[in-house]
Amino acid sequence: MSKLIVYNDHQPEAPLGVYTEPEDIRRELKPVGVRFERVNASVDLPDGAGQEEVLAAYKHIVDAEMKAHGYNTVDVARIKPDAPNVEAARAKFLSEHAHTEDESRIMVEGSGCFYLHAGDKVFQVECTRGDLISVPEGMKHWFDMGAAPRFAAIRFFIRPDGWVGHFTGETIAERFPKYAP
């Protein structure tokens, strides 16, 4: 189940609000420019499915998203607990960073958690299967896949290097609860 927890960025121990209904999550994220939608991600993916199989299974959604938002590049990030270097991969995205274009993802398997730092708030968004999230260009954030990650996300970009994170050097992520699905 998708979930949004809103915090003051200096009080991670005291949530300001918790939301689990998609309409409520969408309403809370819209003022900070984040697009949150639910899509039909009901295709079960075989264990060995790679990028091409995942994209083929969701071709109708991928094509519509690319056309509607001008994306030129799409790929799949699929991580399982036994993936090589999984701890290093988790650690890399646990640091606050931003991108030079929108970061748009559709979760088609499992879950992961975006932490969005907008103004003096942190929006912790647990994304599960069927969630589409688009974090605006330049928004500071971090991503936690959990200690035993299991997810597949279709990622959309305008430029092939759009996924590259520009790290802020801030340690804010260390103060917030880690994702534990």
UniProtKB/TrEMBL annotation:
The record marks E96 as: May play a role in metal incorporation in vivo. CDD domains: cupin_ARD. Binds 1 nickel ion per monomer. Binds 1 Fe(2+) cation per monomer. One of its GO terms (molecular function) is dioxygenase activity. The record marks D102 as: May play a role in transmitting local conformational changes. It is an enzyme of class 1 (oxidoreductase). Pathway: Amino-acid biosynthesis; L-methionine biosynthesis via salvage pathway; L-methionine from S-methyl-5-thio-alpha-D-ribose 1-phosphate: step 5/6. Its cofactor is Ni(2+); Fe(2+). The record marks R105 as: Important to generate the dianion. Transmembrane segments: none annotated. Fe(2+) binds at H97, H99, E103, H141. Ni(2+) binds at H97, H99, E103, H141. Its EC number is 1.13.11.54, 1.13.11.53. It holds the Pfam family ARD. Keywords: Amino-acid biosynthesis, Dioxygenase, Iron, Metal-binding, Methionine biosynthesis, Nickel, Oxidoreductase. It catalyses: 1,2-dihydroxy-5-(methylsulfanyl)pent-1-en-3-one + O2 = 3-(methylsulfanyl)propanoate + CO + formate + 2 H(+); 1,2-dihydroxy-5-(methylsulfanyl)pent-1-en-3-one + O2 = 4-methylsulfanyl-2-oxobutanoate + formate + 2 H(+). Monomer. Catalyzes 2 different reactions between oxygene and the acireductone 1,2-dihydroxy-3-keto-5-methylthiopentene (DHK-MTPene) depending upon the metal bound in the active site. Fe-containing acireductone dioxygenase (Fe-ARD) produces formate and 2-keto-4-methylthiobutyrate (KMTB), the alpha-ketoacid precursor of methionine in the methionine recycle pathway. Ni-containing acireductone dioxygenase (Ni-ARD) produces methylthiopropionate, carbon monoxide and formate, and does not lie on the methionine recycle pathway. Belongs to the acireductone dioxygenase (ARD) family. This is Acireductone dioxygenase. It comes from Corallococcus caeni. The lineage of its organism: Bacteria, Pseudomonadati, Myxococcota, Myxococcia, Myxococcales. The gene is mtnD.
